[in-house]
Amino acid sequence: MQEIPLWYAAILFAILGACTGSFYNVIVYRMPRGISLISPPSFCPHCKKHIPIWFNLPVIGWLILRGKSACCHQPISIRYPIGEALCGLLGAFALLLANFPFQDASLFSFTAPVAHWADSFALFWLLLAIYPISAVDFEFKLIPDSMSIGGIVIGILLSFFPGGITPLQSFLGAIFAGGGLYLIGFIAGKILKRDAMGLGDVKLVAGFGALMGIGNAFFALVLASLLGILVMVPYRLIKKENSQEIPFGPFLAIAAPIVYRFGDLFLNFYFGLFGLE
Question: What residue ranges are annotated as transmembrane (predicted)?
Fold first, then answer.
C-alpha cells in the first residue's frame, strides 16, 4: 500500500478531530440533561429552533455567526469553538505522536506507515475523549456512556487493524480490566460502607482494556490515582471542601493516552531499577 504523507494525514486528522469535537459538544450539553444525542436535531439552547447544518461547521460556524445565534441573536458560548479547535489540534497531535520518531527530518516528507494506523486511531480516541469526559464529570459527576461503552467498541474494532493488540486481547482486556475494577470498588464499598467506585469509571476502564490490554489498563488506573491525589488533595485543602465524591474520570482520561504511548517505556525503566529488564 502506498504511504500517505504525514503532513497531509495530520490535516485530515485535524479536520476529523474538529468534527468529532462538534459532536462532543452535543454530548457535553445533552447527556447530563437526559436529552437524546440523535433526536431532536441540532437546536438553539435559547429559543429551541432548529440550527441549519451550515451553522454547525466546527469553529467556522461560530465565526460566521460572530458568536451569536442566527435565530434569536443570543450569545453562543465560546466554549463550543474552543472545544472544537482543541479537538482538532489533539487529532493532529494523535497522528504525530503515534508516528514519532519520524522517518525523515523534513516535515513535508514525513510518512505514516500503515503499521501505525492502529496506534494513530487509538490515540485519536483517547486524546479527544479527555474533553467530554472532563467537562461532564467535573460538573455533573457522570461519565457519558457514549464515551465509556464507545471506548469498548472502538477498542475491539481497532484490534482488527495491523499493528495493535489482537481481538482476543482486546476482548479479554475489556472484561478483566472492567471486572477487576468493579471487584475492587465492590470490596472497598463494603469496607467503607458507601459507594467507592462509580459504574461509569468501571466502564471507562473496560474501554481502556479493549484499547490497550489488561496490563496497560491497570497501569492507567494507577497513574490516574496518583494524578488524582496530587491534584485533589491540595485542591480540597485550599477550597476546604468536605465532599466525598471525587470526579475520577478526568484523571483516567488524561492517564490513558500517556500509558498507551509511553507505558512500555515506564515499565522498562521501573523494572530496570531492580535489574529485571
Answer: 6-27, 85-102, 114-134, 146-165, 171-192, 204-231, 251-276
Question: Tens digit of pLDDT for each residue in 35-60?
Answer: 888 888 888 888 888 888 888 889 99
Instruction: Check whether residue 146 and residue 277 sit in a common domain.
Output: yes
Beta carbons of 159 and 165 less than 8 angstroms apart: yes
Domain match, 98 and 183 both? no
Q: What is the DSSP string of the chain?
A: -PPEEHHHHHHHHHHHHHHHHHHHHHHHHHGGGT--SSSS-SB-TTT-PBPPGGGGSTTHHHHHTTTB-TTT-PBPPTHHHHHHHHHHHHHHHHHHHHTPSPS-SSGGG-EE-GGGHHHHHHHHHHHHHHHHHHHHHHHHS---HHHHHHHHHHHHHHTTSTTS--HHHHHHHHHHHHHHHHHHHHHHHHHHTS--S-HHHHHHHHHHHHHHHHHHHHHHHHHHHHHHHHHHHHHHHHHT--------HHHHHHHHHHHHHHHHHHHHHHHHHTT--
Domain, as residue range, for 21 = 1-112
| Number of domain units in the chain | 2
Whole-prediction pTM: 0.87
